[in-house]
């Protein structure tokens, strides 16, 4: 018989620390993460649940300097457009935020999702086809937590044009871009979200309450 491991109270406390200290990181040290550690993160990410066991995620390492530069330029263009949509103090506040760590992060990882994977044989997707994307997000979050546990930071960059990034990546065009991640050792630890520290937004206590029906 297979026995499930028991998770000790000490482990549970540490797990709570892990959840609380997982951060979206935008300031990185330059030194690369050892390849075996990155491989380990990918292995753990693939333990995530997926609709029909379809494992629709595809993790793409973006190492080519020209592709990275093209992603940076796309971010700068999209970010300038986002800034142009704002006015007054809101625009000034937005302009002061650091919304990507694309220059410093030693690793860029694009996470793509197969919208109609053969694996999983369609189970669970009939009425909710978006479940493939959600499965890929599960893998990203698993990757993010595992990285945090190893002292590695992850920053999710979504101020990009997915069609343009897909052209830059030059991968199978039926895949969908879900995330563009900056990965590396954080410049400094932080116990609260950067957007909170910069006065942009705060965690809302009311979100921690159940809605009753
Ligand atoms: C789907 C998704 C997209 C995000 N895109 C961006 C982004 O483009 N730029 C950015 O600075 N942060 C981005 N973030 C990070 C959030 O701002 C961050 O998760 C939030 O402020 C909470 O901070 P924490 O992750 O450190 O707890 C994204 C997060 C998610 C989940």
UniProtKB/TrEMBL annotation:
Matches recorded under Pfam families: Nitroreductase (PF00881)
Coiled-coil boundaries: none
Oxidoreductase in keyword set: yes
InterPro entries from the UniProt entry: BluB, Nitroreductase, Nitroreductase-like, Nitroreductase/BluB
Name of this protein: 5,6-dimethylbenzimidazole synthase
Alphabetic keyword roster: Oxidoreductase
Superkingdom of the organism of origin: Bacteria
């Amino acid at each position: 018989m297979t026995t499930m491991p028991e998770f000790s109270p000490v482990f549970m406390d540490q797990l709570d620390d892990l959840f609380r200290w997982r951060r979206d990181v935008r300031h990185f040290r330059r030194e690369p993460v050892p390849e075996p550690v990155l491989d380990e993160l990918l292995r753990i990410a693939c333990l995530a649940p997926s609709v029909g066991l379809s494992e629709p995620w595809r993790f793409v390492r973006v190492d080519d300097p020209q592709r990275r530069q093209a992603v940076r330029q796309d971010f700068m263009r999209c970010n300038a457009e986002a800034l142009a949509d704002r006015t007054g103090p809101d625009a000034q506040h937005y302009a002061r935020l650091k919304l990507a760590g694309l220059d410093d992060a030693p690793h860029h990882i694009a996470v793509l999702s197969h919208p109609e994977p053969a694996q999983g044989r369609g189970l669970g997707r009939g009425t909710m086809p978006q479940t493939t994307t959600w499965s890929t997000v599960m893998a990203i979050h698993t990757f993010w937590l595992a990285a945090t546990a190893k002292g590695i930071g992850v920053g999710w960059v979504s101020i990009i044009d997915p069609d343009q990034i897909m052209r830059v990546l030059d991968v199978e065009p039926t895949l969908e871009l879900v995330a563009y991640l900056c990965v590396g050792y954080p410049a400094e630890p932080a116990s609260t979200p950067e957007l909170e520290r910069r006065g942009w937004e705060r965690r809302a206590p009311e979100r921690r309450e159940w809605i009753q029906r």
